[in-house]
Amino acid sequence: MTLFLQLDFAALSAAVLACLACGLLGNLLLLTRQSLLGDAISHSVLPGLVMGFIVTGTRATLPMVLGAMAAAVLAALLISLIRRLARLEAGAAMGVVFSGMFALGLVLIEVSGARSVDLDVDCVLYGQLEALIWPAATGLSSLWDPVALADMPQETRTLAGVLALTLAGLALLWKELRLAAFDPDFAASIGFAPRGLSLVVLVLVSVACVAAFWAVGSILVIAALVAPAAIARLLTDDYRRQFLLSAAAAVLMGAGGYGAAILVPWLLGLGHGLNAAGMMAVVAGLLLALAWAFGPYGRVRRVSVA
Amino acid sequence: MSIAPPALEVRNLSVAYREAPVLRGVNWRAPASGLTAIVGPNGAGKSTLLKAALGLVPRLAGEVRFFGQELRQARRRIGYLPQRASVDWDFPATALQVAAMGRYPRVGWFLPLPRAERERARAALAEVGMADFAGRQIGQLSGGQQQRVFLARALALEADLYLMDEPFAGVDAATERAIIDVLHRLGREGRAVIAVHHDLATAPQYFQHVCLLNGGVVAAGPMETTFTAENLSRTYGGRLSLLDEAALRPAAAPPAGRPLRAVP
Q1: Which of A126, A168, B1, B44 is deepest in the core (most CB within 10 A)?
Q2: Cβ count within 10 A of residue B106
Q3: Average pLDDT in the A59-82 region?
Q4: What ipTM was reported for this prediction?
């Protein structure tokens, strides 16, 4: 048990927390048909990461996270600005912003010399879940020991904070977010500014993206944003249950993917472990297929995930 | 000029989508109460006029007053009924949840909907004959029922002026009847309704005032004196089919036979 807590617990919690935060926010993207936004933001953070590195000269996590969050918020603002000023459809605005910012990040890596000190591309793409350990754990009692908990890896603690922020935002703006997602024009006509609300969603998604980034990597952030909401959409037609089921799917995806990464190689007798983030996306895909095949809204009705 | 300020007053309003001007220097004073139809050909800017008045689309120039006030001060007195096709009816929500959105201004930000407000929303659903469908998912409702849910949401606002964008578009006869009843009730209570309306045959029956629009206001005023063949032909630029003077004669019996429609 102690060994599990020391070696696996921090990583497993990080995986579940990341999937939960992204999965819950993914509902708001899916219901407003802008799931692509997760893709846009996870690409847009790259220049922020590099800037964080350039400014501080270290690979310390905090400056890079701050830089990435600033870049994500900037990207979100640029997208909504371009949509409004150029009256472009959302997909076009996102495509312009995220490819441009991703390219800027690559250029920054080249000109700053960050590459020579190894700004780890693998980590950026696939996350570093396996690196999260909790050596301070001595047993189950460590779970409510503040001293031991303070020794949890920073990524896990950040994700716990981000999930708390997400839950607080969803609880506080529950009816407002539903209103703005369903009928932004009516929302504006009664003084519930949908632009401000969609900005709140964008910022929350950005923060969750960046925090999850370190656990599951940029590519799999997209899976964590889209899959739980899409799975829930195939199972229910009720707004509250949509969020509850997506949370359940997110936990299954995070924990199941992490477990599968350990169990599958053992069952198959492989000599090496599998990438946990990759297995999470696989599990999410399987859950989606099951929901489609057996869910009440699966084969009967097509759901747009775009 | 009436004593009460007009429910909606538009001065020199211009709106363009990209380069193309939709509304050019619109000047119009809607009556302080009663039912007013906005009539005009496709692309005349009818919906745009409502949206620009509510600040939903940016305006190039012009001023808008509601009951003599700025939009911000008058917002609580205005109810908007968007086009039914403007939202995604696959959205996971019940009829009651949608109708209850009309109570949000009373509840304010951040707070959950109190039980009393939910009951007001339920009463609004009952008024449009949708009480039995309160718990139904909106995606499972017929087009007419969806329109009635939208109307209930607007009624739940308890506004003094309603801006309705094609309330009769694509609805069944029962829904049309229900909407007319609600409109007449609102008119009797001294409230104002401004509705974009497409059916020239029913416009004189349903509405007391009319604003003929095509990029600008062609004519506006009481139905009897304004809704004339000459004004209509100016509005539609001679593109009216079945232009039957008898059908347009004021206070005439409901026009028999085929309804008069604009050729698209």
Answers
A1: B44
A2: 15
A3: 80
A4: 0.91
Which residues from B are below 8 Å from A190, CB to CB?
Answer: 75, 80, 101-102, 104-105, 157
Packing angle of the helix pair A194-235, A154-172 (nearest 10 deg): 100
Q: List strand residue ranges (DSSP E) for chain B, in order.
A: 8-17, 20-30, 34-39, 61-66, 78-81, 161-165, 192-196, 209-214, 216-222
Establish if B109 touches chain A: CB-CB under 8 angstroms: yes
B51 and A CB contact within 8 Å: yes
Asked if B161 reaches chain A (Cβ–Cβ under 8 Å), the answer is no
The beta-carbon neighbor of B101 closest among A179, A191, A233 is A179
Name the nearest CA neighbour of B121 among B88, B93, B140, B144.
B93
Distance CA A214, CA A128 (A): 6
Map out the domains of chain B with their CATH numbers. 8-85+160-248 (3.40.50.300)
Q: What pLDDT was estimated at residue A116?
A: 53
Nearest to A233 by CA among A301, A279, A183: A301
Q: What is the 3-state secondary structure (H, E, C) of B244-261?
A: CHHHHCCCCCCCCCCCCC
Q: Higher pLDDT residue, A206 or B258?
A: A206
How far from chain centre, in Å, is Cα B158? Answer: 15
Helix (H) / strand (E) element for B120: namely helix B115-127
- Where exactly are the structural domains of chain A? 2-216
pLDDT at position B262: 46
Cβ within 8 Å, pair B101-A186: yes
- Minimal CA separation from A249 to chain B, in Å: 18
Rounded Cα distance between A179 and B234, Å, is 41
Residue A153 in contact with residue A135, Cβ under 8 Å? no
What pLDDT, on the 0 to 100 scale, is given for residue A77? 84
Name the strands in the sheet holding B209-214, side by side, starting at the edge strand that comes first in the sequence: B78-81, B161-165, B192-196, B34-39, B209-214, B216-222
Q: What is the pLDDT of residue A229?
A: 96
Residue B217 bridge partners (DSSP): B213
Q: What DSSP string describes B51-102?
A: HHHTTSS--SEEEEEETTB-HHHHGGGEEEE--GGGS-TTSS-BHHHHHHGG
Whether B137 and A87 lie within 8 Å, measured CB to CB:
no
Residue B55 in this model has a pLDDT that exceeds 90: yes
For A2-216, CATH number out of 3.40.50.2300, 3.40.50.970, 1.10.3470.10, 3.30.700.20 equals 1.10.3470.10
Provide DSSP, A16-78.
HHHHHHHHHHHHHHHHTT-THHHHHHHHHTHHHHHHHHHHHSS--HHHHHHHHHHHHHHHHHH
At residue B26, the pLDDT reads 96
pLDDT, tens only, B1-31: 447 899 999 999 999 987 789 999 999 999 9
- What is d(CA A306, CA B103) in angstroms, rounded to the nearest whole number? 31
Give the per-residue pLDDT at B100.
98
Whether A242 and B92 lie within 8 Å, measured CB to CB: yes
